Automatic annotation (TrEMBL):
It comes from the Eukaryota. Catalyzes the reduction of fatty acyl-CoA to fatty alcohols. Residues 395-494 form the Fatty acyl-CoA reductase C-terminal domain. One of its GO terms (biological process) is suberin biosynthetic process. Gene3D superfamilies: NAD(P)-binding Rossmann-like Domain. This is Fatty acyl-CoA reductase. Residues 21-319 form the Thioester reductase (TE) domain. It comes from Dichanthelium oligosanthes. Its EC number is 1.2.1.84. Belongs to the fatty acyl-CoA reductase family. The lineage of its organism: Eukaryota, Viridiplantae, Streptophyta, Embryophyta, Tracheophyta.
C-alpha cells in the first residue's frame, strides 16, 4: 500500500470502517478530521471514562463534538449535524485499565466482530502521577488494548500513541527503534514489568495497613513512580510508564498490525480546521501564559537548545497516513512525529516571537484594562544557576522569615508556610521540567520522512478541502508562533 499513497487513498481507506478511539477527549482533532474528510466512515466508537453510556454520551457532547473545533463540520452539515453525529459517533463507557476495557459482555461481542481499526490515545500524561494510576493507564492500558485487538475478528490496524520522550534524557540522534522488554535507559539495570506491578500492589497494601491519610497515600504513590522512573533512567513517571506500555505492546502483539506514533510536544493547529486551536497547557505554553499575564519573570531554559514541537493537525495527518499505509501488515512500525532533525526550532525563536507579539499586543491589566508595561523574561540555562538565583532571591528571605517567626512566637506562621509551599512547588516544577527545557537529543524521523516522500505533492486535495501534510520543514517557526500559536494560547488558554 505504501507506494500507492495519496490524499484520496488515505481518505478512501476510512470508508466503511468502524474505529475504536480511546482518549478522544484529549484527541479531538483526530475525531473531527475523520468525520470531516470521510463522512462515509461507518462508526467511531469513542471509549470514554463514565458511569454509563448515557454519561459517556453527555461527555462526548460537551467535551468532543460540542467544542469550537467542530465549527467547520457543523457548517458543512448545517441542521443535519446532530443527526450526522448520532449516526456516526457511538460513545462507550469504558476504561482501558480494565480487561476488556471495562465493557459489558454483550457490547464486547458486538465490538469484537465490528472493529476494523483501534486508535489508543488514552494515557495519563502527568509527569508526577501516582505510580499505580500511571501504571494502570499507560502500561496495563496498552496491554488490555492489545489483548482486545487480538480478539477482534477483522482488525486491520492498531495505532498506539506514545511520545518521543520515551527516549528519556538521551543526547544525540535518537532512532525510531522499538523497546525490548526489560530494556532500560540506565546501564546495569534490568526492568521487570511484573515486579513493578507487584511493587505497586505491595505498596498499596502497606499504605492501607498503616492507615495512611489520603494525602500521605497520594504522596507515597507519586514519589514511588518518580523513584522507579529514575532508578531505570527515565526522568518522570509519565514517560517511564509510556515506555513500558510500548514494551508490552511490542511483546504481546503477535501478528497484529501495529503502528506506534511518537509525537514530541504537540502544539496548536497550523492549518485546518481552526488555526491556533488547542487544549491543555503544554510545557512551552506556560512560558507564553506567564508572559501574557506578566506573572513570570524567570524561566529555566537554554535558548540555544532545540524545542521539539509539532502542530496537532500534522500529528493527526501523520497518524491517518500511517494507518492507511500499514493496514493489515503483520508488523510493527514506529514513527517519530517530530521536528528537531529537519527543521529545528530553538527556544530563542519562541522567546523572540513571544516578546514581539506582546509588544504589538500588550497584555492588559485585569484591574483597569490598561496595557501593562512589558518586562523581558530572565532565562537560566542550567538547573544549578536557576537554583542559585532562587536561593538568593527567595530561599534566603524565607529563612529570615522563619527565624523572625520563631522569635515572634509564630506570628508569621501562616505566611511562612504559604510562601514555603510556593517555593517548594516552583523548585519541584523546575526539577520536573528541566529534562525538557534542557533537552539535548534530536529525534531521527527517517521512517516518517519515508511516508512524507511517498505523499509529497499528493497530500492535498484542495477542491475537496483536505490536506494530509505533516512535513515540519514547511513551517516557518517564527511566523507560526507569532501569527498562530501565541494568539491561540492567548485565545484558548488564558482566561
Ligand atoms: N500533548 C502532547 O504534547 C503529547 C505529546 C506526545 C504524545 N502525547 C500522547 O498523546 C496522547 C494524548 O495526550 P493528551 O496530551 O491529549 O492527553 P490528555 O489531554 O491528558 O488526554 C488523555 C486522554 O486519555 C483519557 N484516559 C486517561 N486514562 C484513561 C483510562 N484509564 N481509560 C480511558 N481513557 C483514559 C483521558 O480521559 P478523561 O477525559 O476521562 O481524563 C483523555 O481523554 C497520549 O497518549 C500522550 O501520551 C501527547
Amino acid at each position: 500500500m505504501i507506494g500507492q499513497l495519496d490524499a484520496d487513498v488515505v481518505v478512501g481507506y476510512f470508508t466503511g470502517k468502524s474505529i475504536l478511539i480511546t482518549g478522544s477527549t484529549g484527541f479531538l482533532v483526530l475525531v473531527e478530521k475523520i468525520l470531516r474528510v470521510q463522512p462515509d466512515v461507518k462508526k467511531l466508537y469513542l471509549l470514554i471514562r463514565a458511569a454509563d453510556d448515557q454519561s459517556a454520551k453527555q461527555r462526548v457532547e460537551t467535551e468532543v463534538t460540542g467544542r469550537e473545533i467542530f465549527q467547520v463540520l457543523k457548517q458543512k452539515h448545517g441542521n443535519r449535524f446532530e443527526d450526522f453525529i448520532q449516526e456516526k459517533v457511538c460513545p462507550l463507557a469504558g476504561d482501558i485499565m480494565y480487561e476488556n476495557l471495562g465493557l459489558p459482555n454483550a457490547k464486547l461481542t458486538v465490538l469484537l466482530k465490528e472493529i476494523d481499526i483501534i486508535v489508543n490515545g488514552a494515557a495519563t500524561t502527568n509527569f508526577f502521577e501516582r505510580y499505580d494510576v500511571a501504571f494502570d493507564a499507560n502500561v496495563m492500558g496498552a496491554k488490555h488494548i492489545c489483548q482486545f485487538a487480538k480478539r477482534c475478528n477483522k482488525l486491520k490496524m492498531l495505532l498506539h500513541v506514545s511520545t518521543a520522550y520515551v527516549a528519556g534524557e538521551q543526547e544525540g540522534i535518537l532512532p525510531e527503534k522499538p523497546f525490548q522488554v526489560g530494556e532500560t535507559l540506565r546501564e546495569g539495570t534490568h526492568l521487570d514489568i511484573g515486579s513493578e506491578l507487584n511493587l505497586i500492589k505491595d505498596t498499596r497494601r502497606q499504605v492501607k495497613a498503616n492507615r495512611f491519610s489520603e494525602t500521605a497515600e497520594k504522596r507515597t504513590m507519586k514519589e514511588l513512580g518518580l523513584k522507579r522512573a529514575r532508578e531505570f533512567g527515565w526522568p518522570n513517571t509519565y514517560v517511564f510508564t509510556k515506555a513500558m506500555g510500548e514494551m508490552l505492546l511490542g511483546h504481546l502483539r503477535g501478528d497484529i498490525p501495529v503502528v506506534i506514533i511518537r509525537p514530541s510536544i504537540i502544539t496548536s493547529i497550523l492549518n485546518e480546521p481552526l488555526p491556533g486551536w488547542m487544549e491543555g497547557i503544554r510545557t512551552i505554553d506556560s512560558f507564553i501564559i506567564g508572559y501574557a499575564k506578566q506573572a513570570l519573570s524567570i524561566f529555566l531554559v537554554d535558548l540555544d537548545l532545540i524545542m521539539d514541537v509539532v502542530p496537532g493537525d500534522m500529528v493527526v495527518n501523520a497518524m491517518m497516513v500511517a494507518m492507511a499505509a500499514h493496514s493489515e501488515e503483520q508488523a510493527q512500525h514506529i514513527y517519530h512525529v517530530t521536528s528537531s532533525l529537519r527543521n529545528p526550532a530553538p527556544y530563542a525563536v519562541l522567546a523572540e516571537s513571544g516578546h514581539r507579539y506582546f509588544l504589538h499586543n500588550p497584555p492588559r491589566s485585569r484591574k483597569n484594562g490598561e496595557p501593562m508595561p512589558l518586562s523581558r523574561m530572565r532565562f537560566f540555562r542550567t538547573l544549578p544557576g536557576f537554583r542559585m538565583y532562587m536561593a538568593v532571591k527567595f530561599r534566603l528571605p524565607l529563612e529570615l522569615l522563619r527565624l523572625l517567626n520563631i522569635a515572634l512566637c509564630g506570628a508569621f506562621s501562616r505566611r511562612y508556610n504559604e510562601l514555603s509551599r510556593k517555593y517548594r512547588y516552583v523548585m519541584h516544577i523546575a526539577d520536573l521540567y528541566a529534562p525538557y527545557a534542557l533537552f539535548k537529543g534530536c529525534f531521527d524521523d527517517t521512517n516518517t520522512e519515508r511516508l512524507r516522500v511517498v505523499m509529497a505533492n499528493k497530500q492535498q486535495d484542495k477542491s475537496r478541502g483536505y490536506d494530509f501534510g505533516f512535513d515540519t520543514k514547511t513551517i516557518d517557526w517564527d511566523d507560526y508562533f507569532y501569527r498562530v500559536h501565541i494568539p491561540g494560547v492567548v485565545n484558548y488558554l488564558c482566561d
